[in-house]
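[AMINO ACID CHAIN]
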Amino acid sequence: MQIKSISAEQTLAIRHQVLWPKQSVEFCRLEDDSQGMHYGAFENEKLVCVASIFISNNSARLRKFAILEPYRKQGIGTAMLKHIIEQLRAQQVSDFWCDARQSAQTFYAKFGLTVQSELFYKKDVPYFQMSLALR
């Protein structure tokens, strides 16, 4: 498995397939994608996992983290999140946060992220805001 920087366009197919399959591909595009850092995990040269990071005021937000179904529970998501956190610490970013689907809350908790909000919904999907102090 290899993790490397990719373009925002390269993230769209996996974002759509995994996160919002009932919405349009355009729904999966972010207005500020051009300002983000986008990462892809490749298994045998196939893009299987994507994540996007947006930094503002020394705080990094994880958005649109998605792994294709056949590649889950193989450590790819864990490797991706570890890679991103290491990169952010090297850049002296102070905070890391995301809107985490309720179904992924325990995954993020393994990395030290804690719930910072009440449960809320996006298109009938339950979320919590979670964060981690990096310094």
